[in-house]
Amino acid sequence: MSGGCHLRSSAGAPTTARGARGVGRVAITLLAATLLGGSELCLAQAAAKKTSAPLEEIIVQGTRSADEQITERVQSALANDRWIYAEHVIVTTEKGVVRVEGLTSDSWEMHRILREARKTPGVKRVLNQLEMLHLDPEGG
Questions:
Q1: pTM over 0.90
Q2: DSSP secondary structure string, 114-130?
Q3: In CATH, which of 2.40.50.840, 3.90.1170.20, 3.30.1340.30, 1.10.630.10 is domain 66-132?
Q4: What is the pLDDT of residues 10-49, one digit of tens each?
């Protein structure tokens, strides 16, 4: 065999196709099984020699999902609006549907929050889970 891949028979002596001439059927069968099993070894040895070069490092950078981007846009819009106190508002997005929940001080602020969420690009629908907290001690 060429290529530097050597097989040994069960007796430990090198085995080649020429050395099998004149041997009985059992020896030929044994030789064939040895060669077939050893061919995988030769392929593995050849592959190991080819891949001995250092491998390049591969860096995979994941992208944020569309829902995460929508949530960040809505939160940013609420934080940048000076008429909205966004500290008590939680925004979550699932499949483009934005859920806005938390506390507002009046109906005007609630409508402004909902309007900001609706006009954000990528929003399909806005679910209102806001509660109004009346700050007037007399209940008005």
A1: no
A2: HHHHHTSTT--EEEEEE
A3: 3.30.1340.30
A4: 454 454 545 444 546 666 666 666 666 655 556 666 666 6
